User: Fold this.
Amino acid sequence: METASHKERALEVARQFGIARGRDFDAVGVTRATIQRLRDEGILQQVGRGLYKLADAPTDAGTSLAEAVRIQPRGVICLLSALQFHELTTQTPHAVWILLGQKDWAPVNPSIALKIVRASGEALTAGIEAHSIDGVSVRITDPAKTVADCFKHRNKIGIDVAIEALRDFVKTRPRPDLARIYRYAEIDRVQSVIRPYLEAMA
Assistant:
């Protein structure tokens, strides 16, 4: 009877969190043996180290983004990963790019490849949207902030990627809010870098 109860609680945790961590199961008294048994039976799927989801749950294209945020909940999806999410690039990132505060801990040996970028103040907090991916609330920089961030971190991702993102932003929006990008560029202190490109596309 106890095993059945553990199984029901485990399934409820997986439904609640979308991607659940070992500690989420621990909090309701589900044993690791129960988790392993459900995994072996094909009821739970292990998607990363200590991360599980229901095997029959629909898989979103952004699953790795959700997994990254479950690994480091303070992380914000940014740069190439945010560009891909917003369909503003032809690039396919080989790691998930996340934005963290200067003092936030960086995951050690994470189950997926991560690229960590640091910021503080408004550069860290401005222009963030929350999206539900695989049942997980994932914070992602909005399209305009993502474009501005690409110019800020052009040495990491390449100026050509930043220009492509700006071009796609303009092309895919009926009335692109270039002033919004410029406001974020001011926060990122790259207004002088981005101005010529904005003026050329205005």
Observations:
- The first strand starts at residue 20 and ends at 21.
- Strands lie at 20-21, 44-48, 51-54, 76-77, 96-101, 114-119, 128-133, 136-141.
